[in-house]
Amino acid sequence: MHRTLSIRGRYFIAAIAFTMISTLLALFVPLTYGETKYFGLDVDYWFIPFQNYTLFASALGCIVLALIVLGFMRHIASYIVAALLAVSAIILGYSSFLGLTTIDEDKLFMRTAFDEQTYYWQNMTSITLLYNEHDGSEQYIFTLSDGSDVQIANTNQLNEAKSFIYATARSHDIPYTEKREQ
């Protein structure tokens, strides 16, 4: 008698293997896609928002959950749940490639999977870099002329644009301040 792995075991092994691969995929796929698609973009700085990474990791998590559901039980309800998780994975995966933030001499452009905004430098009244000495986090707060604020967390990608943001603020006569978070 041949010993073969059951279908249930195959789903669980596939879920474990995909979980291990998903960690690397979630870290590198959104960045690789952004580097490939936006390489020739005519802006001074661009970066991929953290939301893209979380959406892609969620899509991969839906695939893992679908494999686990199929491993536990295989009947019509589990097939429907697995199909819904697969559709969710496709939607989340597609959404993870939509986010982008660009900074150039005219404007600050922010696109997420759900929203798209353009903020022009001449419409800004102040820029504040808020930093926390305890955890080392920094956050830009762009205050617009209508009183609303746009907040962007300063990541390593955005940190490269720090001097550019300062120089652009000075050229447009926008007050630039750095404050320690209380």
Question: How would you describe this structure to a colleague?
Answer:
The protein is an alpha+beta fold. It is built from 5 helices and 8 strands, in the order αβααββββββααβ. A hairpin with a 4-residue loop joins β3 and β4. The N and C termini lie far apart (71 Å).
Offer a few descriptive terms.
single chain; 182 residues; 48% helix; four-stranded antiparallel sheet; four-stranded mixed sheet; elongated; 5 helices; 8 strands; alpha+beta
**How would you state the average pLDDT, rounded?**
89
Order of helices and strands: HEHHEEEEEEHHE
Class computed from helices, strands and strand pairing: alpha+beta
Q: Give the tally of β-strands.
A: 8
What percent strand? 15-25%
- What percent of residues adopt helix (DSSP H or I)? 40-55%
Compact summary:
With 182 residues, the protein is of the alpha+beta class.
Layout of helices and strands:
Blueprint lengths: L6 H31 L7 E3 L2 H23 L3 H20 L4 E4 L3 E5 L4 E5 L3 E8 L6 E7 L4 E5 L2 H4 L2 H10 L4 E5 L2
